[in-house]
Amino acid sequence: MQAHYFIGIKIPEAAAKKLDQARKGWNLKSHKRYTHWVDMHITLLFIGSDPHDEIRAAQQALSTIRHAPFELTTSTVKTFGNPATPRIVYAAVEDSPALAELQAKVREALRPLQLNPDGKPFVPHITLAGKWAGGPPLDIDLTVPALTFPVTEFTVFRIEPGNVPKYIPEASYQLKESV
Where is this motif: HXTX 1 (predicted)? Predict the structure, then answer.
């Protein structure tokens, strides 16, 4: 199977462990997959496979991005799919113009390449559980603490299904004030 990639922001260890602890407190048994704290991230852009062998060119293009560091804060728990039987349960982050701007810069940097990134609207989130397992509808109150954490870099990750960590850093880019 050909490698798959995405560009994302790794959640700092302390914040990821607190999200993991909150999720464990829910005693959730409704999903088949639970994101290990070491793999918690916000996807800026899902690339998928690299049929034209352009990942190195993508890494070079991403190295040209200039963006100041910023902070994000978790806000609430939301879902994708039917709320009673959600496909994904995630920690949402408060609206952040800086995050939206970084995501747009990432998308624009890769536009000239033949990669076929996901074209869905950007919904920043930290996946906590995925793949509905069946059973009764989800009817418990899910909350996460309001956690503020710094964003100082973004990373190209290679996906290694079945491993922990599942997302392997290929290249990271420090955020710094423009010069």
Answer: 41-44
